[in-house]
Amino acid sequence: MTDPFPDRRQLPPGLHTPIMSLAWSRDDSTSLITVAGEIDMSNSHLLTELVEFLCQSPVPLIAVDLSAVRFLGAHGITALLQASQLVTSAGARLTLRDPSPFVLRVLGAAGVMRHLALDDAPIPRGAALPDVVLRLARRPAVRPSSNRAAGQRPYSPR
Asked: Are 106 and 82 in contact (CB under 8 A)?
């Protein structure tokens, strides 16, 4: 079999695979954006731009399927929050459909779940934050002090 693209340079394995892929479908009442791969600083704007485009002719619901997302960075979280604001200001509703356990852990740890709506689908197993992470997140920070030897109490924010 001959290569249909003979001028194509040979790339190292894995470089031809996209970091993130977006797919969009629409029925009468819902636009569905399916995201796969990684949402990071190099591509998060694409998600926001697609949502902004969909808001030009809004439907009542825009769902973002995150079941195939394997990495969600800070820029990805920001893109989801911006998308939610864009959709809300267009008079529609944005929901996250079937987020992977990893995505739920990241969004929960970032404390942004109250700003994002989940579809009515059940939360996948393993998505909840472990109890030890929740306890550590609630523990007040203690700042080390060089005056401890002098009998002074360490600094603790209130």
From this structure: no
- CB half-sphere exposure, 9, CA atoms < 13 A: 4
Whole-Å CA distances, 55 to 51, 79, 93, 117: 6, 15, 10, 17
Which one, of 113, 106, 104, lies nearest residue 73 by Cα? 106
- 50-75 pLDDT, tens per residue? 999 999 987 899 999 999 999 999 99
Pairing between β-strand 20-26 and β-strand 93-97 as defined by DSSP bridges = unpaired
Please give the full DSSP string across 43-106, using - where no structure is assigned: THHHHHHHHHHHTTS--SEEEEEEEEEEEE-HHHHHHHHHHHHHHHHTT-EEEEES--HHHHHH
pTM here is 0.68
Residues in the chain where the model's pLDDT stays below 50: 121-145
Q: How far is CA 58 from the centre of its chain?
A: 22
Question: Do residues 54 and 62 make contact, with C-beta atoms less than 8 angstroms apart?
Answer: yes
Strands 20-26 and 30-39: antiparallel
Q: How far apart are CA 98 and CA 65, in angstroms?
A: 6
Tokens of 11: 């790339």
